[in-house]
């Protein structure tokens, strides 16, 4: 399936609000839906004036299709200053939420709990020179927010975004986003500080392999000219599957990095909300 924007107005299939909206939930309207592949899509919602979040945080998303809606954690892919809220999602066959979420159209209603949270925020890291963003698949979403936040570049002189997917077309979302930053009025001047390293594990591409493998072998550092990761200069954020988190956390610790949190900033952080 080729990438295609869905710009038609919602039809009679639009989800009716037959159930009361809880006080701690926003009922938001779908502004845009874009399907990249058979398995990946993004959607944008209107943003309530009262909603505030830090770039890199996540919220709980659901649909008004049951008295007790099913909610799942979704990283906010848009930056804190955006007038809309963007999300990047996988389509899970038979998934309790995504089976229905993937069918939303412009004008439909999506539920979002009012509180945002997460560990992939700048405040959870101590100052450093370089910020590495390790991601697989839709794990790039919180980093889509951070690379559009001027504060990220003010705190780090170099930002290295690494995304690993199985196939090349799964990289389109991040590639398009990185390309668009050159014309971004807020972060365009910082683009020279950002390096994007897109990798695939199944389909041949410019960069192939897994994050841990190319770093342990030294191939990544040879190709980029970057020095080996060290706890004095480098900070790392990690978002992906449970196996990826474990492998990348172990990698960070072999480099001498220490896991941090909002209440105890250190040299690397990871997000566990999507795997537990």
UniProtKB/TrEMBL annotation:
It comes from the Bacteria. This is ferredoxin--NADP(+) reductase. Belongs to the ferredoxin--NADP reductase type 1 family. Keywords: FAD, Flavoprotein, NADP, Nucleotide-binding, Oxidoreductase. Its EC number is 1.18.1.2. The keyword Nucleus does not apply. Gene3D superfamilies: Nucleotide-binding domain of ferredoxin-NADP reductase (FNR) module, Translation factors. Pfam families: FAD_binding_6, NAD_binding_1. It comes from Bartonella bilalgolemii. Its cofactor is FAD. It catalyses: 2 reduced [2Fe-2S]-[ferredoxin] + NADP(+) + H(+) = 2 oxidized [2Fe-2S]-[ferredoxin] + NADPH. SUPFAM superfamilies: Ferredoxin reductase-like, C-terminal NADP-linked domain, Riboflavin synthase domain-like. Residues 23-123 form the FAD-binding FR-type domain.
């Amino acid at each position: 399936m080729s990438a295609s924007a869905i710009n038609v107005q919602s039809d009679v299939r639009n989800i009716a609000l037959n159930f009361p909206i809880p006080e701690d939930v926003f009922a938001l309207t779908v502004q845009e839906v874009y399907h990249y592949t058979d398995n990946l899509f993004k959607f944008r919602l209107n943003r309530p004036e009262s909603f505030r979040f830090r770039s890199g945080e996540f919220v709980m998303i659901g649909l008004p299709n049951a008295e007790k809606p099913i909610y799942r954690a979704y990283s906010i892919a848009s930056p804190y200053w955006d007038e809309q809220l963007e999300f990047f999602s996988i389509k899970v066959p038979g998934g309790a939420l995504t089976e229905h979420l993937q069918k939303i159209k412009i004008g439909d209603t999506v539920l979002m709990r009012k509180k945002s949270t997460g560990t992939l925020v700048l405040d959870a890291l101590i100052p450093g020179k370089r910020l590495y963003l390790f991601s697989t698949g839709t794990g790039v979403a919180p980093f889509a927010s951070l690379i559009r936040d001027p504060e990220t570049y003010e705190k780090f002189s170099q930002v290295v975004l690494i995304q690993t997917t199985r196939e090349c077309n799964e990289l389109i979302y991040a590639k398009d986003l990185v390309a668009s930053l050159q014309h971004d009025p807020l972060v365009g001047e910082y683009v020279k500080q950002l390096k994007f390293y897109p990798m695939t594990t199944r389909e041949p591409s410019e960069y192939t392999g897994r994050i841990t493998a190319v770093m342990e072998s030294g191939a990544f550092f040879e190709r980029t000219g970057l020095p080996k990761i060290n706890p004095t200069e480098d900070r790392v954020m990690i978002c992906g599957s449970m196996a990826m988190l474990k492998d990348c956390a172990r990698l960070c610790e072999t480099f001498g990095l220490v896991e941090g949190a909002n209440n105890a900033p250190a040299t690397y952080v990871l997000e566990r909300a999507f795997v537990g």
